[in-house]
Amino acid sequence: MPTFKAIVIEKSDGGQKVRLTDFDEANLMEGDVTVRVEWSTVNYKDGLALTGKAPVVRRFPMIAGIDLAGTVESSSHPQWRPGDRIILNGWGLGETHLGGYAEKARVKGDWLVRLPARNSARGAMAIGTAGYTAMLAVMALERHGVTPRHGPVIVTGAAGGLGSIAVALLANLGFAVHASTGRPAEADYLRELGAREIIERKELTGDPRPLGKERWAGGIDSVGSTTLANVLSMTRYGGAVAACGLAGGMDLPATVAPFILRGVSLIGIDSVMCPLERRREAWKRLASDLDAGKLAAVTREIDLSGVMEAGRQILEGGVRGRIVVKIA
Question: How far is the C-alpha of 75 from the C-alpha of 94, rounded, in Å?
């Protein structure tokens, strides 16, 4: 059987080892669609998997990468034919199922989303799980009834991949966006994306009060822990916060006060097992609501050989915006 290039994570008594190597096609997992992978991306979760900082990977050996975009090579699934252009995010890719940092993947056709006509495979991976999750969060705020007329909204972790796209999306939809970041040097970058106000991270890292001054009608939080608790305490009556990350920790040192005294809602965003209809809606919205020029400005490109270093950098807060990975 032929081989192809892939980034493989292996585990032994000595710990985790990651390498770019040749992978035998015969060892691909079961699936009814084989994809020629063209592009992937680097998300915070990929950094956790590549470095072993969190137990993201559940089987070994594992091809890393939680995203891919490419072309169907063969299919026994009724919906997909050779030549179809597809996107895949989540469903255990890079965790329990061999992932996207490879020239080939075999997956379930029920996991795939058709690449929107307005998107290229590279553009879709510039968005990636980070941007797709940001869109799910925006949609959740909209379903809750948060609109620009209700007041400003906050985005935490704003200079990262998810945060950057959340800022751009919300600004494009007419919201007054307050961008929170621990990197003050990125203030001009965030304003170019559409942020109207920059908030230093330290404003949200002190011990949370049960209730603080009402500042925001809603928010998108990718940090968790104390930051999320502070955002909740300062959310206006009837507002909502979409939680979609844990860069600051999995704990939530908050009280019930914002929920029972101000009617604030905390909305959880899951991108991994999200139903297909909502996925399709998110990708359709991204094709129309995300400024392509802004996306291009926040994206840089690497190849497979640069993925391990990018994974380390993203955990250290050294990555601004998005990274696309050219596979072929």
Answer: 21
Residues 63 and 101: beta-carbon distance below 8 Å: yes
DSSP 231-299: HHHTEEEEEEEEE---TT-S-----SHHHHHS--EEEE---SS--HHHHHHHHHHHHHHS-HHHHHHTE
Please determine whether the domains at 3-115+298-326 and 129-268 fall in the same fold group of CATH.
no
Residues paired with residue 3 on neighbouring β-strands, in sequence order = 24
Question: Which residues in 206-243 are b (16+ Cβ under 10 Å) and which e?
Answer: eebeebbebbbbbbbbbbbbbbbbbbbbbbbeebbbbb
152-163 residue pLDDT tens: 999 999 999 999
- Domain extent listing, the chain: 3-115+298-326, 129-268
CATH topology of domain 3-115+298-326: Quinone Oxidoreductase; Chain A, domain 1 (3.90.180)
Contact call for residues 228 and 254 (beta carbons, < 8 A): yes
Is the pTM value of this prediction over 0.85?
yes
Q: Are 66 and 102 in contact (CB under 8 A)?
A: no
Tens of pLDDT, residues 92-142: 999 999 999 999 999 999 999 999 988 899 999 999 999 999 999 999 999
- Tokens 């869109």 locate to 135
Task: Compute the half-sphere exposure of residue 54: CA atoms within 13 Å on the CB side of its CA.
Answer: 14
The CATH H-level (homologous superfamily) assignment of domain 129-268 is NAD(P)-binding Rossmann-like Domain (3.40.50.720)
